[in-house]
Amino acid sequence: MKRSTIIAVAVAATVAVSAAGCSTASEAEGTADDPVTLTFWGAYGNGGNSTQAEVLNDTLIPSFEKANPEIKVEYVDIPYDDLLKKLTTSAAGDELPDLVRADLGWVPKFADLGVLVALSDEMDNFQELADATYPGVLSTNLYDGKYYGLPLDTNTRVLITSQEALDAQGLDAPPATFEEFAAGADALSDSGMQVFADGGLGAWNISPWIWSGGGAITDDEVTTSTGYLDSDESVAAVQMLVDLYANDQISNGIIGNAGATSTSEGLPGGNYANILDGPWMNGIWSEQFPEFTPIYAPMPAGDGGSVSVVGGEDIVLTSTSEHKDAAMKFIEFTQSEEFQMALVPTGQLTVISALGDQQVELLPYLELFTDQLATAKARVAIPQASEVDTILNEALVPAFEGTVTVRDALTSAAQKIDELLAEE
Amino acid sequence: MTVLRSGERVSAGVAEVLSATPAPPSRSRRMSRRRAATAATPYLFLAPGLVLFAVTVLYPTLQAFQMSFFDWKIVGSATSEFLGLDNYARAFTDDHFWLALSNSGIYMVLTVAPQIVIGLGLALLIQKKSPTQPLFRVLFYLPVVTSWVVVSFLFKFLFSDGGLINFALGDLLHVTNGDTAWLADRWTGLIAICALGVWKGIGWSMMIFLAALQGVPQALIEAANMDGANRWQRFKVVTVPAIWPAILFVTVMLVIGGFNVFISVYLMTGGGPAGRTDVLLTYMYEQAFNNLDFGYGSAIAVILTIMVFMLSVVQMKVFRDRNGGGAQ
Amino acid sequence: MRKRNAAAGNALRIVVLSILAIIMVIPFLYMLSTSFKEQTFVFTNPPQFIPDPATTANYEQAIESSDFVRYFLNSLVVAVIATGLSLLVSSMMAYAFARFQFRFKEILFRVLLLGLMIPAIMLIIPQFILAKNLNLLDSLLGLILFYVAGSLALNTFLLRGFFESIPAELDQAMQVDGANAWLRYWKLALPLAKPGLATATIFTFLACWDEFTIALTLTNSPENRTLPIAIQLFAGQGNNAVQWGLVFAASMIAVVPVIIVFLVFQRYFVQGLTSGAVKG
């Protein structure tokens, strides 16, 4: 399938539909006396992090309700690890809420089930809203030529290190290239500090290394993985990590040791020199390790430049919602400056490119994240994205352990991903 | 069942199931005439429970069974394709299914035996009435009453690289160098998961054995004493046969619980690294809820159920045979 | 000689039991201690057994950041009502199985047995759809119904054993006096099976108090949330460090009531096991 063509068609269709005016919804509209209630599910409060949910419940929703007295919004916080299960069950029972803050990897999955509304078909001003967002973030909402959501917040991973680590490696600045990164590892060899740690080998973890090394997971049209995931560039990038792992310079958290010191503790604790992580870490550290000052730097560059991975959440509207017009008003609200900027201090990067500068003024350390986002790429957006993670993880763990070669591991992973793509 | 069947907590009562024999016929015959007048009585007693059970447990069970024959789509509007036995055939050629099955088996073996041996040992040690007995009883039973979610988090914490287990084995006892990455490997990971199973379960088996030991006829022990039997002989000849039903009961319950292990694996290792500590139910869970492959997930669950049922029937048979020649 | 041997044996017994008891209890004590630690002091080498500095911040955060009192009351209401109903309904069934002969008795009994072996997680979706059709989504009543249903099989099995161990002669004597089946069940069987009922109470209460999956699936609004979900909300995800102190503080809040229930009932509990459950 040719994605680009489909996109073109979709865009044309969207314009046509918008022109015709699609808001012919028949559902009952609320009034100020008898407001409709929208239900909104998300995991803002995950891990005891109450600040995001508080901003939403105490500031943003009241503000929206004041401006739209005919609508009430009820936000329900659900543990992140269980949200997917709950969405699945609710989809089976036709009991989904009106709005969901969905992990961006879930949008194609639920669009594929047919439980989401294609916003590009239904919202009059979709194109206008979509154009305001970062393209890499927006693309996570695309499924089968239509957009099923709008970006809500975004993030990406950058290199985070500490002064202690730089001193130990004899560096003046964080490693900017693969070579400096590997050289730093050599300098640490007897120090008891490991050069890098990560929590797994899924696409979220390994993609930045492959992309920065000049490799790829699939072709741009997402039709095949063979020839990309097992290219020389991809192999070389992974090989560098595998060599470091073999020298005990990378924590075994990366192969899935659930008992390894976590990255967020190991960096301030002096166990690890570098980690890749997101903007939310600042808040976590200031609460849990107030003495610690993180140093942020771009993802080290290889032959492919410095390329990181896009993360974040999208807001989606369910097809069972009885108040689609009201829900779309709230979606529009989430794209506003007010909404976006209120969540910035809690570690949620804005998805509106025009607000990037304002966000950096508010919190200067975010500049680096904003810059990194400019080149960051999204993971493969297919309904079986979680299976891609499983494939990568199961292929790469033996490679890190040294029981298969990196090339063999990536070749077999590429074949399995091809099979998934063929199913589509 | 949903509620009460998390692992080994499954309780005492099922002994009754497995040893269930109809009430002695003599009594019922004597009372039969009166009963004829009120033939409806037993059904009136059964009705509320059976209706509830049929609607909320049995009916969903049949639906789950039905799913296993389909490429089941969770959303009602989509058509599910009938696959016949394909999902079952797929399981038998799926390496990961066999890995998960063998892990479930390993868990079962490594937790059942210690729970029986240590549980029985503890029961023998504290059976004598003494001022300290209630205290020990409570202490050993404490893990049984604590929620699986809480103790799974707790053991993940204890078995983490910088955790208490490594400190104890390395810095205190010097049996390891104290930096074992327990949860990074299939075998050490399973050991950690099994350790939790045993720790949480021995209080339960101890309690059952304690109760059973109180039913050992004192006269038999004294008779054995007079015959000059030593302690081991008395245990073998008198005690074991007397508590044989309890031993079998505990075994059957622990085997069922062992194969149904889920939450501890899910929370401690998540099946990792690379799915190597997956057990049947974590694999089923991943297929159903991560990959939305409910047909295949249901097939795995059905295989598990059939296996456990057959194992229980075999054990019941062994139990009856042995019991026939036993002391009671 | 013999006496001294016995005394030595007794001392040895106490020593062995104490060592084992310490091993059993250390994880709890360590959890308690961790719940009073700041995150920085959770992993130290050597580990801290007495928190220094000790802080109650975790408890404060756990209680403040969510409506713990409400969740606590919800859990309590659901667990108490479900336990009561389950005991009533299952003891009636158990009485029928223990005291009457009727058609399909063994088959019905075995169907109940099979119900114990099906992985609960597989039933989530069918049960969710059922709850929806019965209009029981997002209500404590729905939780109670499924909890009662889920505990029926086990309690029936357990109580059947107790009822069968009550001498049939007592039953017959009452029958001669003209008491009907309900009176015999209510006035004779139930009082005599008190230990069994206590055992079943503990198991059912514990199971309802801890239940997570059904509660998560069937309830949405925070007003209907129970404690296990609140605890799960505290546990982190993915790469982020779990805030162990916070999780364990929330856990302690949930565990302590259970331990109290157990301490209150444990005397009956042992009696229960002795007189009913395992009678060869």
Explained architecture:
The complex is a heterotrimer of chains A (424), B (328) and C (280). Chain A is α/β, with parallel strands linked by helices and 424 residues long. In chain A, 46% of the residues lie in helices and 13% in strands. Chain A has 19 helices and eleven strands. Chain A has helices spanning 3-20, 50-67, 80-92, 107-113, 119-122, 126-131, 135-138, 163-169, 178-187, 203-212, 232-246, 263-266, 281-288, 324-334, 337-343, 356-362, 367-375, 385-401, 406-423; strands spanning 36-42, 71-77, 99-103, 142-143, 146-147, 149-156, 158-161, 194-197, 272-277, 295-297, 310-317. Chain B is mostly helical and 328 residues long. Chain B has helices at residues 14-18, 25-30, 32-37, 41-67, 86-92, 95-126, 133-145, 148-158, 164-172, 186-213, 218-226, 231-259, 263-268, 280-290, 294-324; strands at 70-71, 81-82. Chain B has a two-stranded antiparallel ribbon. In chain B, helix 6 runs antiparallel to helix 12. The longest helix of chain B is centred in the middle third of the chain and has 32 residues, at 95-126. Chain C has two domains: 1-54, no CATH class; 64-278, MetI-like (MetI-like fold, Orthogonal Bundle), CATH 1.10.3720. The two termini of chain C are 38 Å apart. With 280 residues, chain C is mainly α. In chain C, helix 2 packs across helix 12, helix 9 runs antiparallel to helix 12 and helix 11 runs antiparallel to helix 12. Classes of the chains: A alpha/beta (424), B mainly alpha (328), C mainly alpha (280). Chains in contact: A-B, A-C, B-C.
Topology of helices and strands:
The complex is a heterotrimer of chains A (424), B (328) and C (280).
Chain A: H1 3-20, E1 36-42, H2 50-67, E2 71-77, H3 80-92, E3 99-103, H4 107-113, H5 119-122, H6 126-131, H7 135-138, E4 142-143, E5 146-147, E6 149-156, E7 158-161, H8 163-169, H9 178-187, E8 194-197, H10 203-212, H11 232-246, H12 263-266, E9 272-277, H13 281-288, E10 295-297, E11 310-317, H14 324-334, H15 337-343, H16 356-362, H17 367-375, H18 385-401, H19 406-423
Parallel strand pairs in A: 1-2, 1-3, 8-9
Antiparallel strand pairs in A: 3-11, 4-5, 6-11, 7-9, 7-10
Chain B: H1 14-18, H2 25-30, H3 32-37, H4 41-67, E1 70-71, E2 81-82, H5 86-92, H6 95-126, H7 133-145, H8 148-158, H9 164-172, H10 186-213, H11 218-226, H12 231-259, H13 263-268, H14 280-290, H15 294-324
Antiparallel strand pairs in B: 1-2
Helix pairs in contact in B: 4-15, 5-15, 6-10, 6-12, 6-14, 7-10, 8-10, 10-12, 11-12, 12-15, 14-15
Chain C: H1 2-34, H2 57-65, H3 68-99, H4 105-115, H5 124-133, H6 140-164, H7 168-176, H8 181-192, H9 194-210, H10 213-218, H11 227-234, H12 244-277
Helix pairs in contact in C: 2-12, 3-6, 3-9, 6-9, 6-12, 7-8, 9-12, 11-12
